[in-house]
Amino acid sequence: MRQKIDLLNGPVFPSLAKLAVPIMATSLVQMAYNLTDMIWIGRIGSNAVASVGAAGMYMWFANGIAVLAKMGGQVKVGHALGAGEPEQARGYARNAIQLSLFFGLFYGIICLLFQGPLIGFFRLNSKTVIQDAEVYLAITCGLVIFSFLNQVFTGILTAMGNSRTSFLATAIGLVINIILDPILIFGIGPFPQMYVAGAAIATVFAQSVVTAVFLVSIRREPDIFMNLHFFTRPQTDILKELIQIGLPSSIQNMMFTGISMVIARMVASFGDAAVAVQKVGSQIESISWMTSDGFAAAVNSFIAQNFGAGNETRAKRGYRCSMIVVLLWGFFCTIVLIVFPAPIFRIFIPEAAVLPMGIDYLRILGVSQLFMCMEITTAGAFSGLGRTLPPSIVSTSLTVARIPMALLLISTPLGLNGIWWSITISSICKGIVLTAAFKKMTFRGIKVNTHS
Question: Residue ranges per domain, the chain?
Answer without folding.
Answer: 12-439
